[in-house]
Amino acid sequence: MGRRLRRWALRWFVRYVGRAPEKRLERLMGGRIRRRVIAIVKRAMEQRFNADRAGEMEAVLEFWVAGRRDGRSDNWQLVIEAGGCRVYDALEREPDLTIEIDGVPFLRLVTGNANAPALFLKGDLKLDGDLLLASRLPRLFRRPRRS
Q1: What is the domain extent for residue 62?
Q2: How high is the pLDDT of residue 9?
Q3: Where are the beta strands (DSSP E) in the chain?
């Protein structure tokens, strides 16, 4: 797929998530496409990481995205160190921050259609650990453009 087509598809998907009813997004994140969406988000986290804003930061973030059909959650660790950012499926390190969220709020958050403070206040986003680190996260990643 060409770069222009990928960019167009991403912008379309971001708009779709922003406009779609909650039930439709629940079906999406409860279905087979969920694995693909999670994989794209993980890859995008590494690609959209802004090392200049991270500076000398070293942190381990653990994500728990609930809402799978089998009742389990998708989880991974994001490790920020040495000016880079890597995603690991193995939960081997002690996390500085654990982020728990259901599939639909997660999808809205990563597409820029929801903000973390509002989700946190509603109880849709649960944080355990370094809350100061959590407040710095939005500045560490370039968000997708909404068009």
Answers
A1: 3-140
A2: 82
A3: 59-66, 74-81, 84-88, 97-102, 125-129
Give one word for 82, left, alpha or beta, with left for phi > 0 and alpha for psi -120 to 50.
left
Percent of the chain at pLDDT exceeding 90: 63
CATH code, domain with 37: 3.30.1050.10
Asked whether residue 48 is assigned to any structural domain, the reply reads: yes
Per residue in 22-68, pLDDT tens? 999 999 898 888 999 999 899 989 998 999 999 899 999 999 999 88
In which region does residue 55 sit, left (phi positive, over 0), alpha (psi from -120 to 50) or beta (all else)? left
- Entry pTM: 0.86
* Domains of the chain: total: 1
